[in-house]
Amino acid sequence: MKRYTQQRLQQEEKPINTGSRVTTETVCQDGPTAEAILEIAKKKDAGFIVAGMKEGSKVIRKMLGSTATALTRRTPIPLIIVPEKAKYVNVSASALANESDIGPHADNHL
Fold first, then answer.
1. What's 76's DSSP letter?
2. Nearest CA-CA partner of 54 in 69, 72, 75
3. What would you report as the CA-atom Rg of the chain, rounded to the nearest whole angstrom?
4. Are the C-beta atoms of residues 76 and 49 closer than 8 Å to each other?
5. Spatial distance between the Cα atoms of 28 and 42, rounded to a whole number of angstroms
6. For residue 91, what pLDDT is reported?
7. What's the predicted TM-score (pTM) here?
8. What is the mean pLDDT of the segment spanning 77-96?
9. Residue 1, burial from CB neighbour count under 10 angstroms (0-12, 13-18, 19+)
10. What is the DSSP code string of 40-67?
11. What is the b/e burial string over 31-58, where b = at least 16 CB atoms within 10 angstroms of the residue's CB?
């Protein structure tokens, strides 16, 4: 299983490294997925984490959770969640969003 996982990681890494200035490294480690990802990201001093989100039943995800959900709850490192059917393309622009509970009459310098 570990060999299969390492091969899959290397296949996923190829299109990212082809003609890109992005440096990647694949690591395969035993253990609960979210914990292993966070441990490796900390060891490598990662600037951000990219994780996939599989489509599937929301009911099952609510009962069992998911790696992406666990990461969002526990990571202090910026996290990018990629939908399962998304394809990698070289990034030419990015969109940032922020949610806030600040009311319409709050100090705009807040």
1. S
2. 69
3. 17
4. no
5. 15
6. 76
7. 0.66
8. 82
9. exposed
10. HHHHTT-S-EEEEE----HHHHHHH--H
11. eeebeebbebbeeeebeebebebeeeee
